[in-house]
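ESCALATION

Customer reports they have been waiting on this structure for their group meeting. Please prioritize. Original submission:
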Amino acid sequence: MDLVDFTFLLVGVVVIAVVSAFVVPPGAQAFPHVLFWSWVAFGFIYLVLLKRSRFGTLGYYLGDIRIVNIQGERPSIWALTIRAMFVVVGPLNTVVDILWLTTDERRQALRDKFAHTYVIRTRAKPMGQGAIVYTTYTIFAVNFLFAEVRPVSGEAG
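Update from on-call: job pushed to the front of the queue and completed.
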């Protein structure tokens, strides 16, 4: 679903470039700034505000998924901003996700660990209550402390 959203963002950049070319006078030095800040605003609206809304992004709609915080509620704008900042690394983020998700028992992407979020099916029902525990991960020789939901002892998971 990231591929759908990434494609939509690329189309958005092209549209912004075309519109900016008509709005900004030819040869103006402001053109790169207008283009950059327009794309940042578009990315923020799409990857943060729209993901937080009840509608979700196009990729989330097609994948029938939504994003929740560690308590299972709608995540904060700050959490989604942290998560969206991983877009800066672009396609490398997809490679990291593939490598990370194959070894993570919670199937939680690295960007979700930083943002304290989970991507779940839209119609997912809670399996029960879980405990929020803090786990240390060492990534590139740096230690991080992430909050995770673990099943209460005696439950499957």
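Sent to customer with the following note: The two ends are 25 Å apart (CA to CA).
Escalation resolved.
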